[in-house]
Amino acid sequence: MTMDRRTLLKGAAAAGAGAAVSAATTAEASSVRPTAPPDAVGMLYDATLCIGCQACVTACKTANNMPGNLYDPPKDLDGQTKNIIKLYEEDGEKSYMKQQCMHCIDPGCVNACMIGAFKKREYGIVTWDKDRCIGCRYCQVACPYNIPKFQWDTPVPEIVKCELCNHMLARGEEPGCVQACPKEAVIFGTYEELLADARQRVADHPERYYPAGAPQIFGDTEGGGTQVLYLAGVDFEKLGLPVLGDDGVGVQMRAIQHGIYRGFIAPVALYGILGAVLWRNRRAAAKEGSDE
Ligand code: SF4
Ligand code: SF4
Ligand code: SF4
User: Fold this and answer.
1) Mapping DSSP to helix (H, G, I), strand (E, B) and coil, where does residue 248 land?
2) What fold does the segment set 5-288 form as a domain?
3) Ligand 3: which of 61, 94, 96, 229 to mutate, judged by most atoms within 8 Å of the beta carbon?
4) Span 220-230, mean pLDDT?
5) In CA terms, which of 45, 78, 99, 276 is 20 to 30 Å from 286?
6) What atom of ligand 3 comes closest to residue 54's alpha carbon?
7) Is the CB of residue 41 less than 8 Å from the CB of residue 169?
8) Alpha helices (runs of H) in the chain, residue ranges in sequence order
9) What pLDDT does residue 15 have?
10) Domain locations in the chain?
11) Whole-prediction pTM value?
């Protein structure tokens, strides 16, 4: 780890109290690519270090008061699971893959949520507010990573996704998954430091990461960038990540919204169009089959 995380967390908590929406959510629909807010934090997952022990999965459940145990780990994200580890093994290649919210710099979910239940807030963390949510599930359609899940089997269903353990950050603690990882395969830090760390790793070991010789840091630019970054030794598409351009997903959605509102088309039609556009981007999720 390249920094004193506790100092970071306490400093950020003091300095950032009351600060709100990032540039990403306030930016007009335009060709300007949004940038991470100055106080952005996130995680770096290095799949080449992960041993698939699932300690992070259990720790995530504990941190979020969700049922589950190490002996029967969930196979996919669901209404009681915010973090999973998957194994990819094919054609002599093998890699683990951690999946949770990416805390997009320009999030599709935030832009899709008409009544502001999804927000990009302090430190660029994307949060969900149960008191505002009306259960329309447009956030699910808008997420290119297939992250938000709906609790179908509870009387008062909620949308479930990683919120970067912001309740623990507020106490000066690191996220549960980060604390539990015995290999530091997932680390927490400021976005800038994590990006610098990832760049240093690929510079030091270009042969270890995919593609060999000129490794990709997933999340550096994909979909407008994400505050959760990935390194791996295997093609990210094989690990379930979508193939996205560099434009922010939110930029695309705002452009569509502006055009449609000018024509006074009803929100129902609007979201039908948005859904069709965004579903086309979800190639990896479609390959695995929907769990909705
Ligand atoms: S990964 Fe999905 S749920 Fe998370 S911030 Fe991005 S669009 Fe929203
Ligand atoms: S940050 Fe918290 S909620 Fe998100 S995956 Fe890690 S433990 Fe789970
Ligand atoms: S705790 Fe660390 S090593 Fe174990 S599965 Fe999770 S990320 Fe991988």
Assistant:
1) coil
2) Alpha-Beta Plaits (3.30.70)
3) 96
4) 96
5) 45
6) 5
7) yes
8) 5-16, 23-26, 55-63, 108-112, 138-142, 166-169, 176-180, 191-204, 249-262, 267-281, 283-288
9) 31
10) 5-288
11) 0.82
